[in-house]
From TrEMBL, chain A:
Residues 8-131 form the FAS1-like dehydratase domain. It comes from Nesterenkonia sandarakina. This is Acyl dehydratase. It comes from the Bacteria. Pfam families: FAS1_DH_region (PF13452). InterPro entries: FAS1-like_DH_region (IPR039569), HadA-like (IPR016709), HotDog_dom_sf (IPR029069).
Automatic annotation (TrEMBL), chain B:
Gene3D superfamilies: Hotdog Thioesterase. This is MaoC dehydratase-like protein. Belongs to the enoyl-CoA hydratase/isomerase family. One of its GO terms (molecular function) is fatty acid synthase activity. InterPro entries: Fatty_acid_synthase, HotDog_dom_sf, MaoC-like_dom. It holds the Pfam family MaoC_dehydratas.
Length: 150, 167
């Protein structure tokens, strides 16, 4: 059963994530992103970036490491086998680049119960080693009603 | 390709379109690259057991693939400062009936137009249309006036899919 009192809970930060060129290229290939700044360091530098830049949705890779704290939180009581992804939003203060080491921390922003189901919104703050905010990833999940426990 | 000039942009302008396709192999590639190994994206039996008709694409694969149209149009993916979407319909990716698992079994049509121009912030909001294209179901007894064969059936799979580009 979902515990609405867990709304607002902020979890400990995830292990820092080191962004590699290979991870950016592999992700860009997987999302069929053809812009050269994801693949070719010279092309990224020609645009003024220090190194390869990640596609806009790459932040999900980092965010889900932080979100694991919610998945593993027994007190929140969210049954992740019954979860459907409803909404996602990325806000980038500066693009994620190869060579970055990024910290991430998740907050269980909102729990809206609807019958036996719920809409759950998590917000992950991604920041650089110096603490500067880099990206915010907001994810809304629909936790479906529990069916008859047959 | 020339990059857009902010002063020339107006609400309603089209930024272009692109067709994408997904195969089972593409879903495995996305699972590996993203770390999302949920079996509903690669195992039909498991997908059916949780109430789906079969394997579906990761919503984040659809969302992540659609935005490259904006990155290419803007000239710099780093200019995409905000990107959001709602997942409204699943994208089924059935196993190909024969041949390589690289055979695409889902087709998407992505198109974008400018939804808003913010002259103070020097940014534009691009509204993306992301539609699943499926072959019309063969209905030999279809009444006159029904969509004729050849025309793909379009299903919106993302809603409120918006990217903000900073100039």
């Amino acid at each position: 059963m979902i515990n609405p009192d867990r709304q607002g809970h902020r979890y400990p930060p995830a292990e820092p994530y080191q962004v590699s060129r290979e991870a950016i290229r592999e992700f860009a290939l997987a999302v069929q992103a053809v812009h050269p700044a994801h693949h070719d360091v010279d092309a990224a530098r020609a645009l003024g970036h220090r190194d390869l830049i990640a596609p806009p949705s790459f932040a999900v890779v980092i965010a889900q490491r932080a979100e694991a704290a919610v998945v593993n939180d027994d007190e929140a009581g969210i049954d992740f086998s019954r979860v459907v992804h409803a909404e996602e939003r990325f806000t980038h203060h500066s693009p994620i680049q190869a060579g970055d080491t990024l910290a991430s921390q998740v907050t269980l922003e909102r729990i809206r119960t609807m019958g036996a189901g719920a809409m759950v919104t998590t917000v992950v703050q991604i920041s650089a080693e110096d603490g500067a905010a880099r990206s915010t990833v907001t994810s809304t999940l629909l936790v479906r009603d529990e069916e008859d426990a047959a | 390709m020339s990059t857009p000039v902010f002063e020339e942009l107006e609400k309603g302008q089209q930024i272009g379109s692109r067709e994408l396709s997904f195969s089972r192999a593409d879903l495995i590639r996305y699972a590996a690259a993203s770390g999302d190994h949920n079996p509903i994206h690669w195992n039909d039996r498991f997908a059916r057991e949780v109430g789906l008709e079969g394997v579906i694409a990761h919503g984040m694969l659809t969302m992540g693939s659609a935005v490259d149209l904006v990155s290419v149009w803007a000239g710099d993916p780093g200019a995409v400062v905000d990107y959001q979407a709602r997942f409204t319909r699943p994208v089924p990716v059935p196993d190909a009936e024969s041949g390589s698992p690289e055979t695409p079994t889902a087709r998407l049509q992505i198109s974008g137009k400018i939804g808003a121009v913010d002259t103070e912030r020097r940014s534009v909001r691009v509204d993306l249309s992301v539609e699943l294209l499926s072959d019309p179901v063969a209905e030999p007894t279809a009444a006159a006036g029904a969509p004729q064969s050849g025309e793909a059936v379009r299903t919106k799979v993302l809603a409120k899919s918006q990217a903000v580009v900073q100039f």
